[in-house]
Specification:
Layout (H helix, E strand, L loop, with lengths): L8 E5 L4 H16 L3 E6 L1 H10 L9 E5 L23 H10 L1 H11 L3 E4 L6 H7 L3 E4 L5 H12 L14 H11 E4 L11 E4 L10 H11 L1
Parallel strand pairs: 1-2, 1-4, 2-3, 4-5
Antiparallel strand pairs: 6-7
Length: 222
């Protein structure tokens, strides 16, 4: 395998859930097999089990685990910087803390200078930070095609009935999905007059068709 200096690099930022970490890790392995150097970025508590199964320098030496540090608070200590065992009422706090980690994410990009950022659907701020650093960013969706179709229909036509009954979700599941996409996040600086603001997360579907070009460009610049 080529050295890190001659390999295009990718920084991956999944949502803070093991159900999202797993597919990102599998994608990281596939990219590593294709001579990409991969930085898998998450909170220390989220990376802890991966560090046990992916020892440095073994099997996939071109996958490097990078810690991103969220601001801690009495309500959200570091062991709650993951959805695992997170009390449901702290979910919005976790999302807020993740967004407040933008300065740390910016420092990571400035230091590592990856050729590409691959982000999850709950981080609309990630491509904005990447753009400021002149780094391309693409969205990696870990959900099924039917779920993506439903969500995109909801984004475009929220008041219209879903036109494909065979792929319609049960009402309880439908409300759960929609509730996950439209949520309320406390402002970073909470005041008595401040009200939680709704965050709407559109799903731009992007493909990885430009990865060969990125790989070629990186090889030419190194």
């Amino acid at each position: 395998m080529a050295s890190k200096q001659h390999s295009p690099s990718v920084l991956m930022l999944p949502w803070l859930a093991h159900g999202h970490m797993s597919p990102f890790l599998e994608l990281a392995k596939r990219l590593a097999e294709r001579n990409f150097h991969v930085y898998l970025c998450s909170t220390p508590i989220n990376l802890k089990p991966i560090r046990k199964t992916l020892p440095s320098g073994q099997i996939f030496p071109s996958i490097q685990l990078i810690d991103i540090h969220l601001p801690s608070s009495p309500e959200l200590p570091p062991h709650f910087h993951t959805t695992k065992d997170l009390p449901p009422h702290l979910m919005s706090d976790l999302k807020t803390a993740f967004e407040m980690a933008k300065p740390d994410f910016c420092n990571i990009l400035t230091t590592l200078k990856p050729n590409l950022v691959i982000y999850d659907f709950l981080q609309p701020w990630a491509p904005e930070v990447a753009r400021e650093e002149n780094i391309d960013a693409v969205l990696f969706l870990t959900c099924s095609a039917s779920t993506c179709a439903f969500l995109n229909h909801f984004c475009e036509n929220p008041v219209l009935e879903y036109p494909f009954p065979a792929f319609e979700f049960p009402e309880m599941e439908r409300q759960k999905i929609i509730g996950f996409m439209i949520f309320k996040v406390k402002p970073a600086k909470q005041t008595k007059s401040a009200k939680p603001k709704p965050h709407f997360l559109p799903l731009p579907v992007q493909a990885f068709t430009n990865l060969p070009d990125i790989q070629s460009q990186a090889s030419q610049t190194n």
